[in-house]
Design brief:
The longest helix is centred in the last third of the chain and has 18 residues. This protein has 409 residues and is of the alpha/beta class. The chain starts with 31 loop residues before the first strand and ends in a 5-residue tail after the last strand. The strands form three sheets. The protein has a ten-stranded mixed beta sheet with strand order 2-1-18-17-14-3-12-13-16-15, with helices on one face. Strands 5-6-7-10-9-8 form a six-stranded antiparallel beta sheet. The chain has a two-stranded parallel ribbon with strand order 4-11. The chain has nine helices and 18 strands. The protein has two domains: 283 residues, QueA-like (3-Layer(aba) Sandwich); 100 residues, QueA-like (Thrombin, subunit H, Beta Barrel).
Length: 409
């Protein structure tokens, strides 16, 4: 069956609000860890995850950093308009370029109370320390987002700094609470490095220095990629079938050295820490496959669209795909691959790079649940029933799983 024909109602379960973890545990690695392998479930805690991963495995982490994407502007009448910064306008080469803009930038945003924002009205946000005034006006809008021109009167500040000072932590809407001081640290992984996400790669929130040290001592390697998580991660599938659901494109950034690490481990185990890392790694395969087939790859736009993996085309081996990307980058004297991916991973996707997945427990009727089902088949129901029956905490601040790919899926 083509994923376009999948009915989202087949990927649902009852999730009471009280089972959603509103706050994290005091210690990151205290969360429960459900281990699934060959149809069997065992349990442990995250602090012991190294015990369940073979030596010489390569674990791949998403090093994106969450930005303060929520901005509260004031209308001349005194009313408040909430702006949620999604991603930079497509005039910018990449998200880092946009983040470094000074004085003015254009950004795609969601706007709460947009009907109260009259045409031509300029809104302001006054920041006290350091003092600056951030202004916003609408330049364009579609059914899904608004393009805003954001301008500030301190030309020495980058947009990254403006967000840091004036914005708020963009907690997921299903937590039903405002961000608190503790979220500044806890809604960020220890290895967060590249600013650009509006949501945390939550599987990585469980890792501590001690856990990472345990992995190293067992000769389990670490590699880092970047996928800047967009608000689409919270977007429910509202259409009856997947054919009408559009995935948000997200920026990925993978160094040449990391691609070489992946190539060296293809004959061993590769574990993606989080669905974002997995989508990045599998996107790499399809980019390489396009290069092998001499197809144009739009590195400045969307390199992989959501249905490309399901289109009929010659399929090369994973090793050839990665070798081809390596050769392409070296030929063009590039030390990393930066582009966007819109990949949708759903049953019956055939995985090319990843053998294992560390992930949290996801929302009903979500594309992330489709990804888990693609990875382990219909056993996702057994896992979620087990988690529900054994007091697991769900979603971003909740417990998680180590899933080993089911053979022949």
């Amino acid at each position: 069956m083509h994923p376009k024909e999948l009915r989202i109602e087949d990927y649902t379960y009852l999730l009471p609000d009280e089972r959603i973890a509103k706050y994290p545990f005091a210690t990151r690695d205290a969360s429960k860890l459900l281990i699934y392998k060959n149809g069997e479930i065992t349990e442990d805690n995250y602090r012991n995850i190294a015990k369940h991963i073979p030596s010489d495995t390569l674990m791949v982490f998403n090093q994106t950093k969450v930005v303060h994407a929520r901005l509260l502007f004031t209308k001349p009448s005194g009313g408040v308009i909430e702006v949620f910064c999604l991603s930079p306008h497509n005039q910018y080469m990449d998200i880092q370029t946009a983040m470094l803009q000074k004085g003015k930038v254009e950004w795609e945003c969601l706007v709460g109370g947009a009907s109260k924002w009259k045409h031509g009205m300029v809104l302001q946000l006054i920041n006290d320390a350091p003092y600056f005034i951030l202004s916003a006006k609408i330049t364009h809008h579609t059914s899904s987002a608004y393009t805003l021109e954001l301008e500030w009167d301190d030309a020495q500040l980058t947009f990254a700094e403006v967000l840091h000072y004036a914005g708020k932590v963009p907690l997921p809407p299903y937590l039903h609470r405002n961000a608190e001081i503790s979220d500044e640290e806890r809604y960020q992984t220890l290895f967060a490095k590249q600013e650009g996400s509006v949501a945390a790669p939550t599987a990585g929130l469980h890792f501590t220095k001690e856990v990472l040290q345990n992995l190293t001592e067992k000769n389990i390697g670490s590699a880092f990629v970047t996928l800047h998580v967009g608000a689409g991660t919270f977007k429910p599938v509202k259409s009856e079938t997947m054919a009408e659901h559009e995935m948000h494109a997200e920026w990925i950034d993978v160094s040449l050295d990391t691609i070489k690490q992946l190539r060296a481990h293809l004959d061993r185990q590769i574990v993606a820490v989080g669905t974002t890392s997995l989508r990045t790694l599998e996107s790499l395969y399809w980019i390489g496959n396009k290069l092998v087939n001499r197809e144009a790859v739009d590195l400045h736009g969307i390199a992989i669209t959501q249905w490309e993996p399901y289109e009929e085309k010659p399929i090369c081996a994973s090793s050839i795909a990665l070798d081809t990307i390596i050769a392409y980058l070296e030929e063009h004297k590039l030390n990393k691959l930066v582009t966007r991916t819109q990949i949708l991973i759903a049953p019956d996707y055939s995985f090319k790079i990843v053998n294992g997945l560390v992930t949290n427990l996801h929302q009903p009727q979500s594309t992330l649940l489709l990804l888990v089902s693609a990875f382990i088949g219909q056993d996702w129901r057994m896992i979620y029933n087990f988690a529900m029956g054994h007091d697991y905490r769900f979603l971003s601040y909740g417990d998680g799983c180590l899933l080993w790919k089911t053979p022949n899926i």
